């Protein structure tokens, strides 16, 4: 038996044919399949610009690293410079203690007493101090330089045109450009104009006083 309400139950039922192809004509239906098409995905949002705070921190850290690298480089240079200075000072201190010995050897050489085994020891010592950078200077005829010479004697001479070392009393020693001991010398300067004119007048007077030969 059919229920009296069965007709009313099917009245609200709606059947839709969503087939894209019409089964009767075989043609594509207009607007078919739109209900079943999946919506297109939303476009991805554009990438946001870099955070200004992060960029500022990155720039600050980069500057810190560059500054630290520069400070370290300067530190290395300063340490190397100090190391060289300390070495030079140590070498200069040792060589300064040997200068009296070198003076004695020089005097013995000047007097012809540097012979035999003593001569070989002298040559070995000269070679050793030479390798450490020590060199002697000062020769007769050098122009006097108060920066490298110490004048122990002073005189005037008509044979020079400028202050000149006319005698080396004690040689000087240097290490590179550093003066370890100045050369001690006797210095002669040109005669003063008044002295030259007086000597010229004395010579002229002596010549005039000589009797002429008859």
UniProtKB/TrEMBL annotation:
InterPro entries: GrpE (IPR000740), GrpE_CC (IPR013805), GrpE_head (IPR009012). Belongs to the GrpE family. Homodimer. Participates actively in the response to hyperosmotic and heat shock by preventing the aggregation of stress-denatured proteins, in association with DnaK and GrpE. It is the nucleotide exchange factor for DnaK and may function as a thermosensor. Unfolded proteins bind initially to DnaJ; upon interaction with the DnaJ-bound protein, DnaK hydrolyzes its bound ATP, resulting in the formation of a stable complex. GrpE releases ADP from DnaK; ATP binding to DnaK triggers the release of the substrate protein, thus completing the reaction cycle. PANTHER family: GRPE PROTEIN, GRPE PROTEIN HOMOLOG, MITOCHONDRIAL. The lineage of its organism: Bacteria, Bacillati, Actinomycetota, Actinomycetes, Streptosporangiales. GO terms for biological process: protein folding. One of its GO terms (cellular component) is cytoplasm. It comes from the Bacteria. Gene3D superfamilies: 3.90.20.20, Head domain of nucleotide exchange factor GrpE. Residues 38-50, 200-214 have a biased composition (Low complexity). This is Protein GrpE. Keywords: Chaperone, Coiled coil, Cytoplasm, Stress response. Residues 8-27 have a biased composition (Basic and acidic residues). It is found in: Cytoplasm. Residues 58-85 form a coiled coil. GO terms for molecular function: adenyl-nucleotide exchange factor activity; protein homodimerization activity; protein-folding chaperone binding; unfolded protein binding. Residues 1-54, 184-214 are annotated as: Disordered.
